[in-house]
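dumping this here before i forget
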Amino acid sequence: MQSVIEKFKQNLQEENLKSTPQRIAILKEMLDSDEHLECEEILENLKQKGNNVSRATLYRTMDILVKYSFIRKLDIGDGRIRYERKIGTNHHDHMICIDTGDIIEFCSDEIENLQNEIAEKHGYKLIRHVHQLFVKKI
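structure:
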């Protein structure tokens, strides 16, 4: 965890931003979570832990965390952005229930291989992807 914090401090310096206790608290909150969190949930979690963080600081910090791949930003099309930890997790895709908003994480070697094959067939190398399936309970 300490090396991740040091890397984050370095990234903040690159962005000409100070390393504050609030920004470190935001990083730790995201690293400790396995959830897909909205900013309001993050603010509430921080507040419950005694961390007073402004919305402006939260949003600015979340942008930095996304930019440097500490976390992933998820837009599932419902107008609410969610974030999830990227460091220390395996690659996965998402299945989103359009009725409940539930987000199910999954990984399929078959799908991963097929995506690579399709990219290569067209003369490309797959660099990254976002795979979201929108589903409805049957």
